[in-house]
Amino acid sequence: MPFDFGLSRPARLSPSNLVAEPLEDRHDHEYLAMRGCAVLAEVGYTFHIGGFGRDDWGFDVPYDMSTLVEQLPELLDGLATHGLGEVDFYSQGVERSVTFERSAEAYVLRCRSRTSFTPSPDVEHVGAARLGELFTRLTTEFSAGLRAAGSEIAGLHPFDTWHSRHWTLA
User: What highest taxon heads this organism's lineage (predicted)?
Assistant: First the structure.
């Protein structure tokens, strides 16, 4: 399976106790990303990511997915501005990084593992339009899920812009 990821909304949202708890820091992106992922997990969201020879990396929403979400602003800026970026999926058991490099109308993705997992292949190509679509769907659903759960995080930067943002990486 080629590199792919997506956030899935449950058929019915469960209630969230976290949305009633006050936020500790409304300006710390990493904290808000982790808290937002915890809210989405609590209401029933799931996240799937796979590629580099493994169809399912076994990601959970509250921790594993947050390692991606907390890096999204810098990653998406780098991809849109310079055609370069990297994500460090540092959670225990995953421990791999993926680099992105623009090449014509596609991105060359390279996976480097810090565990016994051996990426095969260790290089994949994803069309620029397709990669932009994957990130657009992720950020849109992330923002929509937080709004549906009643989380104030949906109204904070950068999440407040994600519901209407289309990531053009072509």
Answer: Bacteria
CA 106/CA 83 separation, integer angstroms:
10
User: Which strands, in side-by-side order, build the sheet including 96-103?
Assistant: 84-89, 96-103, 106-113, 123-127
CB-based contact 61:145 (threshold 8 Å):
no
Strand locations in 1-90 (E): 4-8, 46-50, 84-89
Structural domain boundaries in the chain: 27-162
E-assigned strand segments in 10-145: 46-50, 84-89, 96-103, 106-113, 123-127
Q: In this structure, how many other beta carbons lie within 10 angstroms of the beta carbon of residue 135?
A: 22
Give dist(CA 110, CA 121) in Å, integer.
9
47 CB-contact burial (10 Å; exposed 0-12 / middle 13-18 / buried 19+): buried
CA 51, CA 100: separation in Å to the nearest integer? 14
Structure confidence at residue 170 as a pLDDT band (50, 70, 90): low
The tens digit of pLDDT for each residue in 102-117 reads 999 999 999 999 999 9
